[in-house]
Amino acid sequence: MAAEFPPYAAGERETVGGSKRAYDGTISWVDEQIGRLIDYFESEGMMDETMIVVTADHGHNFGEHGIFSDNCGMFDTSIKVPLVVYDPREEGQRISGLVQHTDIVPTVLDYAGVSSPDLYRGNVLPDTREFAFAEAAEQHMRMIRTDDWKLVVPEDVAYLKDQYWYDGDGTPELYDIHNDSTEENDVSEEHPDIVRRLRRRMDKEVRKQQEFEGGERSVEIEEEELDDIRSQLGALGYADDDNV
């Protein structure tokens, strides 16, 4: 079925309604292309030996929390994304627990009969995790989430105010996921014990990552490699002379 909405284009971003329609059109178009791919696999008799993973790198904001057309931040509108895995060995099921992108590679390797190297710290789905951890804005904002709570910690307020939409005062923000699913009310002052507990768990996770990376948070890239990366991104439509 053809998309009912126009594709997401710059001219459609002037209003919230227009932007949503364009975004919906993009989703509809992508859904149609995934359907074509699955139809091909079925016609070639490949579905019994093919794993399919559908996900996204981030969400999008249409005015929620005062953010428009920006995916930066740690609200669910930015970081809660679809993850659909077709595994011909398994019956279909919906996982209600926490998972994250680091679980994808171990899951695919397991399907292929390959053991995950020690450096891959994800789970094999459908196993879930006790908490989810994420970073944004060049590691200047971090989040840890359990089934019940989400703690957001800004690490460099000056940087966030200069480079992103952030307008807070730098204090950690705590959200009660069950009773405040849209994350409107910061309850950190009412639950300092939960803030401390989650902050300790977050700091432990950061230390693990730093140990794995040898204490470094960046990777040096040669100019020649960078030119090649720019070329590849440009071919995919992700980069041009104005934003690289």
From TrEMBL:
This is Sulfatase. Keywords: Hydrolase, Metal-binding. Residues 205-220 have a biased composition (Basic and acidic residues). GO terms for cellular component: cytoplasm. GO terms for molecular function: metal ion binding; sulfuric ester hydrolase activity. Residues 205-225 are annotated as: Disordered. InterPro entries: Alkaline_phosphatase_core_sf, Sulfatase_N. It comes from Halorubrum tropicale. Residues 18-114 form the Sulfatase N-terminal domain. The keyword Hydrolase applies. It comes from the Archaea.
